[in-house]
Amino acid sequence: MGHGHHHDHDHDHTHPGGDVEPALDLGVPDSELSPADVSRRGFLRGAGLLGAGAAASVLASPSAAAAAGLPHAHGPQGGGTAKGGFTWLAGDHHIHTQYSSDAQYRVADQARHGRAYGLDWVVITDHGSATHAKIGVDKVNPDIVATREELKDLLTFQGLEWNIPAAEHATVFVHPGKNEVAVLKQFENAYDGSLQPTTATNDQLEATAIAGIKFLGEQVRKRKIDGALFLANHPARRGIDSPHEVRNWRDADPTVAIGFEGAPGHQAAGIPAPNGRGGARGYYDNNPSAASFPGYPLESYRTWGGFDWMTATVGGLWDSLLAEGKAWWITVNSDSHVNYLDQSDRGPGSNFELNGKYNDPVYTGTVNTGAGDFWPGFYGRTSVGATSFSYKAVMDGLRAGRVWVDHGRLIKGLDARVRQAGDRRSFTGTPLGGVLHVKRGTATELTVEIDLQDQPNWAQFVPVLKRVDVIVGQVTGPVADKDTFQAPTAKVVKSYEVTGSKKFAVTYQLGRLDKPFYLRLRGTDGKRTQPGLMGASVDPYGPQLDVAGAADPWGDLWFYTNPIWVLPQ
User: Fold this and answer.
1) Tens-place pLDDT, residues 186-201
2) What is the per-residue DSSP string for 477-498?
3) Residues 458-467: tens digit of each pLDDT
4) From residue 87, how far is each of 246, 314, 392, 402, 456 by CA, in Å?
C-alpha cells in the first residue's frame, strides 16, 4: 500500500495482478494503446469512470484496487480470528475519556474493557474544542502511551472527534509516532469547527473541512506521520451532513477520508424504561433544523435496526456513492461516554475548563440505568481483515475496505469473495473492498462462508443468524448532482434463510458480466423487519424503523459487509 494519492501523474493504480493497466493510466496517450485498450478506455470514459470526477473511484483509488493483492501473513501477537487468509481484528474507532467535557473514564478504563470484551484495536477520540485543542491533545497522550505499554495485545490509537466545519462530527486518527500529538494539535487548532470565526459563511466552512482533510494527507506525504484516517460519525443524526459534503470529503483525499459510521454508538439509549433510558437508539431523536439538508426525509432522523438511514436504506445515500465507484466504507462503534449499568461518576472537585480533564472516576454504588452507551466491544464491533497484528495493518485494512460490522456478536466470522465462476482454489477471488477486473461476458460468482455464533454474547445469549441478503447495484459513474442520495439500480437480489448451527456457506451465480457492478451483504436475526424505504421490490425484508422508547438493541441484531466491485475490461 502506497502512502497516498499524489496529485500528479504518478498515481498508484494497482489492481489484483500487477501494475496499472495501460487503459487506466492517463499518462499513456490513446495513440500508444492497443485497439482493445482504446476500446476499454472509451467505455470507461463513457461511464464517467476515467478522467475528471474519477479521482475517488475504485479505478483510481489505491485503497480499493490494491485490496486483493496484499500478502496473507499473521502477526506474532494479539487476538483476531483467522478467516479467508486474513487475521480479522475487531475494533472501535469512537471512544471518549475524562478528556472529553461530556465523558468520565480513564483511557485505561476504556482500553481494558475493550480488550476484555474482545477488541484488538481502539481509537481514543476526545471531543475537539477550545479546551481540548489547547491542552487535551497533549495531556491524553501519556495515558495512551502508558496503555500501549500495559496492553501489548491491544492496539491503542490516538485520535480526536473533529467538529467538521458546517457538518457533524468525525473520527480523525493517526498512526502512532513521535509527531502524533503535534499533527493532531495543529489539525485541531486550524480546522476544528468550534474554533472557526463566527463570521465564516457556510461555503467557507465547507472549504475549511476539505482543507482539513487535505492537510492530513499532506502530513502523511511529508512523512510526519505514517497514516491518517477520517470517518464521519453519526452522519444522519441531525441531517446536516449533506450528500455533496460527504462526496467532497471523499474527493478531498481518498486515502484519508474513507467512510462513515454505518451504525452510531449510544445503542443502549434505546433500552426501554424502567430498565434503561427509554430513548432512541444512537440518540437519533432529532428533527430537521435550519441547518439540515432539506432533501432528507423525516425517516432519516431515526435509526433502522440500529443502523444509520444512509447505510440501512437499500438504494439510499451509501449505495449512491458506491454506484459512482467511490470507495466509501462503513463501520460501527460504541461512542462510549458514560456506560449503561456502570457504578461510577466523575471525580469530585473536577474543573474541566481549567484542567482539560475530569478527575479520575469514583465508585458510587448507584447503578446507572439512564446512560446511553456500552463499553467498547460490548455490543458493536468493526472487524478488519489485516495482514498482521500492527497499527499499519489495521489502517491499511480499513483503507482497503476489508471490513464487516455486527451488533451483539451476531456472527463469529465471515469471508466473502467474488471470483470467476468455477474457480475452486482456496482464497481465490476478490475480498471485501476489492475490485475484480474481468473480461466482458465472463461469468462470475460470489462465495460466502459465515461462521455462525456458538458462544453467548455479553447479554448472555447465543445470537442466531436467520437470513443473509445479497445486495447488488450497477456502477453508473459520477452523478450530475452531488446532492444525489439515491441509487435506482441497487436492490436485494437474493435472500437466504440460514439453517444449521456451525456454518453458512453458499455460492451465488452473478451471471455473465456486461455492466460494472458492486455487491454487498447484510444479515439479521430476523426479529424486526419491514420493506425498505424504496419499496418491497427493492428491499422486501429490511430493518425496521426504530421506535424511541421501545428499541431493545439486543432484540434486533444485524451484520453488514463493505462492497466488492466487478468491472469489465
Assistant:
1) 999 999 999 999 999 9
2) ---SSTT----TT-EEEEEEE-
3) 999 999 999 9
4) 30, 29, 13, 11, 22
> What is the domain-level CATH number for residue 430?
2.60.40
In this structure, the answer to whether residues 328 and 200 fall within a common structural domain is yes
Q: Nearest to residue 184, comparing CAs of 218, 228, 146?
A: 228
Query: What would the grid cell of residue 336 be?
Result: 462510549
Q: What is the average pLDDT value for the chain, to the nearest integer?
A: 90
Q: Of 322, 383, 401, 325, which Cα lies nearest the Cα of 64?
A: 401
Number of other residues whose CB lies within 10 A of the CB of residue 458: 16
Residues 13, 19: Cα–Cα separation, whole Å? 7
- Cis amide leading into 274 (omega within 30): yes
Q: How many CB atoms lie within 10 A of CB 13?
A: 18
Burial of 416 from C-beta contacts in 10 A (0-12 / 13-18 / 19+): buried
358 with 423, same domain? Answer: no
**Helices within 155-304 (DSSP H only):** 180-191, 202-221, 243-252
Which domain range does residue 562 map to? 411-568
Beta strands in 332-398 (DSSP E): 344-345, 362-363, 380-386
Contacts 24+ apart (CB under 8 A), 279-283: 279/372, 279/548, 279/549, 280/546, 280/548, 280/549, 280/551, 281/306, 281/546, 281/551, 281/553, 282/234, 282/237, 282/306, 282/308, 283/234, 283/237, 283/372
Number of domains in the chain: 2
Q: Give the three-state DSSP class for 307.
A: strand
- CA dist 388 and 80 (Å) reads 10
- For 529, the grid coordinates are 423487519
- Taking each helix axis as running N to C, give the angle between helix 137-150 and helix 180-191, from 0 to 180 degrees, rounded to the nearest 10: 150
Is there a contact between 63 and 401 (Cβ–Cβ < 8 Å)? yes
Same domain, 97 and 190: yes
Shared domain check, 232 and 95: yes
Q: Which three cell numbers stand for residue 490?
A: 441497487
Calpha distance 141→155 (Å, rounded): 14
Pairing type for strands 517-524 and 564-568 reads antiparallel
Residues 215, 342 share a domain: yes
Instruction: Say if CB 238 and CB 40 are below 8 A apart.
Output: no
Name residue, grid cell 454505518: 262
Q: What's the grid cell of residue 34?
A: 492497443
- Which three three-digit cell numbers place residue 372? 446511553
Model pLDDT for residues 41-58, shown as the tens digit of each residue = 665 555 445 444 444 467
Question: In the beta sheet, which residues pair with residue 89?
Answer: 384
pTM: 0.89
